[in-house]
Amino acid sequence: MKGDEIMKSWVKTLIVIAVILIIIAIPTISSYNNLVTLEQAVDISESNIDTQLQRRSDLIPNLVNTVKGYASQEKDIFTDIANARSKLAGATNVNDQANADNELSNALSRLLVVVENYPDLKSNQNFIDLSVQLEGTENRIAIARQDYNTAVTEYNTKRKSFPTNIVASIFNFKEKPLYKANQDAQNVPEVDFSS
């Protein structure tokens, strides 16, 4: 009889341990899976920014070539655009990408000021089509950046919330950076044609 009681005691202990492990495992698995899902959303959002930046980068040579036919003396702007495109293509993280994107946006702004000096160019159908496509792409880039920042905010908030922060720490989920424009992006770019 004593052996049966010891066996029952062990079985009860094992059942209690199993229930405790299940109670711990379910929220841990749920938190882990939620973090994985949110992290994937951040990665997809970042890829969407890259896609739109690539689209813009593909449109720019056509736009530049169209303008070159009319404004061959504006070589500095064309060089700046080419350099900025190269930096953007070589960006390895969100901050480098934001800085290169800012340089490219500034160069494009200067290019559009040049266009104002050439009324024939503004009425060229190829230029008009490219300008419309570029404007649409700029809007897509802005939306992609907003979507990325929303996904990052949701991920980082979940990552820092209790008890998910414990799971995030155990499984090494790192904080993701927000997409921030360069400080210079807040200033209106200066364009000087006097030189």
UniProtKB/TrEMBL annotation:
<dbReference type="InterPro" id="IPR007156">
    <property type="entry name" value="MamQ_LemA"/>
</dbReference>
<dbReference type="GO" id="GO:0016020">
    <property type="term" value="C:membrane"/>
</dbReference>
<keyword id="KW-0472">Membrane</keyword>
<feature type="transmembrane region" description="Helical">
    <location>
        <begin position="12"/>
        <end position="32"/>
    </location>
</feature>
<keyword id="KW-0812">Transmembrane</keyword>
<dbReference type="Pfam" id="PF04011">
    <property type="entry name" value="LemA"/>
</dbReference>
<keyword id="KW-1133">Transmembrane helix</keyword>
<protein>
    <submittedName>
        <fullName>LemA family protein</fullName>
    </submittedName>
</protein>
<dbReference type="InterPro" id="IPR023353">
    <property type="entry name" value="LemA-like_dom_sf"/>
</dbReference>
<comment type="similarity">
    <text>Belongs to the LemA family.</text>
</comment>
